């Protein structure tokens, strides 16, 4: 005769086994559904990237992601390219870029990070070519179907060579560290930039002897948020007729030579600047000497400007003033001190 307790035990074990099997089946099913969803997302991402990169029409730029691959399973998803090439037939620009890697978390695909390897080369039909090298270049961005909402770009050890094809003369720009940030602010566009220890080496025919420069810029461009929309119209990219505000501009030549400016600024339909800037300048004589050394042909203009500023500052070497720009003419109060060329 079978023991009732043993029968009960076997029945309990069978129930537990069924639950474990059911749980395993559910986990396997969930993993299968998740894997299928990831693969579908990867396929859609590949198609979307291909559509964005395809020039679309004769005037569009064609971008190629060589050896395109979608990676990151199971918790990330990202685009990988062994290199990137660009062919903009309308503007006569072609470029070749290094390896590209990006990644986004599967539960937050609108926020992603990316990085690109050095070097990069850009060729223009206008007779110039550019090559760039860097130690690090990485970025983060937030975007959805209507384009970017914000983005940041950081570079370390950047070196850019600009070469004139006609005579092979080359100008070189170097920077230890650089940052660029941009975001939508309603209909406006906020942008900020930072560069440290930037230097410029010009060809021997046009020497430039400015000391290393560090600078930062915080600006708002009115009505330009549409620039972050990949389908923006040409009017959004127009520089002429645009308005904005410099919240803060700082230029530091070292040795206490610091320029700070803020205020509204606009670009006329002819490219001339107009606006009113609050200017703070430290070491007027130091600025005059540095600029005169770098641009000797404009030494008289720098000398006149230094005299006007010294008079406004009560004979001191530092102070503040209101700078008026009217269609390219620069004045301090009612005294014109120079003319800026149109953009």
Query: Shape from CA axes?
Result: elongated
Distance between the termini: 104 Å
Oligomer: single chain
Rg, rounded, reads 29 Å
Average of the residue pLDDT scores: 83
User: What percent strand?
Assistant: over 45%
Count of distinct strands:
20
List unreliable stretches of 5+ residues.
none
Class of secondary structure makeup: alpha+beta
The largest sheet is: 20 strands, antiparallel
**Tally of helical segments:** 3
In helices, the fraction of residues equals 10-25%
| Run of helices and strands | HEEEEEEEEEEEEEEEEEHHEEE
Pfam families: DUF2125
InterPro entries: DUF2125 (IPR018666)
Protein name: DUF2125 domain-containing protein
Organism: Ciceribacter ferrooxidans
Provide the fold topology.
Elements: H1 4-53, E1 61-66, E2 69-71, E3 76-81, E4 83-88, E5 93-97, E6 100-105, E7 111-116, E8 120-124, E9 128-133, E10 136-144, E11 147-164, E12 170-185, E13 188-201, E14 213-221, E15 243-252, E16 258-267, E17 273-281, H2 284-294, H3 299-312, E18 319-326, E19 329-332, E20 335-339
Antiparallel strand pairs: 1-4, 2-3, 3-6, 4-5, 5-8, 6-7, 7-10, 8-9, 9-11, 10-11, 11-12, 12-13, 13-14, 14-15, 15-16, 16-17, 17-18, 18-19, 19-20
Helix pairs in contact: 2-3
Give a brief outline of the structure.
Helix content is 22%, strand content 47%. The protein is built from three helices and 20 strands.
Write up this protein.
This protein has a 20-stranded antiparallel sheet that branches. The longest helix has 50 residues, at 4-53. The chain has a domain at 238-343. 22% of the residues lie in helices and 47% in strands. By secondary structure, the chain is of the alpha+beta class. The chain starts with a helix and ends with a strand. The chain has helices spanning 4-53, 284-294, 299-312; strands at 61-66, 69-71, 76-81, 83-88, 93-97, 100-105, 111-116, 120-124, 128-133, 136-144, 147-164, 170-185, 188-201, 213-221, 243-252, 258-267, 273-281, 319-326, 329-332, 335-339. The chain contains 3 helices and 20 strands. The mean pLDDT is 83. It is elongated and about 100 Å long. Helix 2 (284-294) packs antiparallel against helix 3. The chain crosses the membrane at residues 20-41. This is DUF2125 domain-containing protein. It comes from Ciceribacter ferrooxidans. InterPro entries: DUF2125 (IPR018666). Keywords: Membrane, Transmembrane, Transmembrane helix.
């Amino acid at each position: 005769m079978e023991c009732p307790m043993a029968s009960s035990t076997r029945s309990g074990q069978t129930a537990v086994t069924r639950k474990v099997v059911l749980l395993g089946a559910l986990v396997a099913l969930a993993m299968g559904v998740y894997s299928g969803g990831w693969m579908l997302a990867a396929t859609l991402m590949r198609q979307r990237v291909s559509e964005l990169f395809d020039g679309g029409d004769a005037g569009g730029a064609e971008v190629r992601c060589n050896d395109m691959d979608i990676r990151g399973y199971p918790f990330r998803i990202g685009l990988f390219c062994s290199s990137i090439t660009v062919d903009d037939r309308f503007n006569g620009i072609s470029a070749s870029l290094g390896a590209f890697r990006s990644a986004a978390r599967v539960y937050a695909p609108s926020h992603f990070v990316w990085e690109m390897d050095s070097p990069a080369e850009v060729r223009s039909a206008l007779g110039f070519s550019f090559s760039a090298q860097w130690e690090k270049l990485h970025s983060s961005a937030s975007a959805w179907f209507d384009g970017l909402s914000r983005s940041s770009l950081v570079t370390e050890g950047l070196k850019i060579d600009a070469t004139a094809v006609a005579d092979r003369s080359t100008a070189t720009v170097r920077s230890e560290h650089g940052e660029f940030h941009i975001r939508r602010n309603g209909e406006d566009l906020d942008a900020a930039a930072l560069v440290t220890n930037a230097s410029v080496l010009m060809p021997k025919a046009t020497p430039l002897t400015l000391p290393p420069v560090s600078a930062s810029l915080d600006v708002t461009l009115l009505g330009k948020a549409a620039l972050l929309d990949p389908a923006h119209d040409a009017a959004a990219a127009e520089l002429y007729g645009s308005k904005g505000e410099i919240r803060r501009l700082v230029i530091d030549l070292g040795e206490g030579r610091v320029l700070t400016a803020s205020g509204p600024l606009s670009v006329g339909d002819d490219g001339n600047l107009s606006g009113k800037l609050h200017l703070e300048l430290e070491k007027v004589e130091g600025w005059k000497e540095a600029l005169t050394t770098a641009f000797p042909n404009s030494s008289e203009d720098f000398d006149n400007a230094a005299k006007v500023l010294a008079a406004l500052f009560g004979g001191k070497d530092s102070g503040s003033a209101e700078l008026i720009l009217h269609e390219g003419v620069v004045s301090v109060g009612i005294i014109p001190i120079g003319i800026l060329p149109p953009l």
